[in-house]
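Write out structure tokens for HD domain-containing protein.
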Amino acid sequence: MKKHPQFGVEILRNYHVNKHVMNIVLHHHERWDGKGYPYGLKGEEIPEFARILALADSLEAMTGIRPYRSPLSWEEAYDEIKKGKGTQFDPSLTTLFLKWMEEHTIPIHRDSQSILQNIPLIS
């Protein structure tokens, strides 16, 4: 699991993706406190767009359908992201991200069937 950022970069390299985009993918699991991977970068060492992607990726992971657990509600995900402010996530970006979450709500689907019902050709 901890190697998936490197695997992602290898896949992107095959498609000649911009090196800055590959750098974002490579570092999106680094943590503000330096306890992330693959290199243990911390704080401002982590590219800014990788810090933004970390927030978005975490929100999707928490609210998305997984075979091993039910998705968190929007409010539960908000609380989890807030807990990570300054440790897992860049504190300034987290403040902005939480403000965005307060102003937006994305429907949380509890199972794949509810997703399919919202696709016009299938429902």
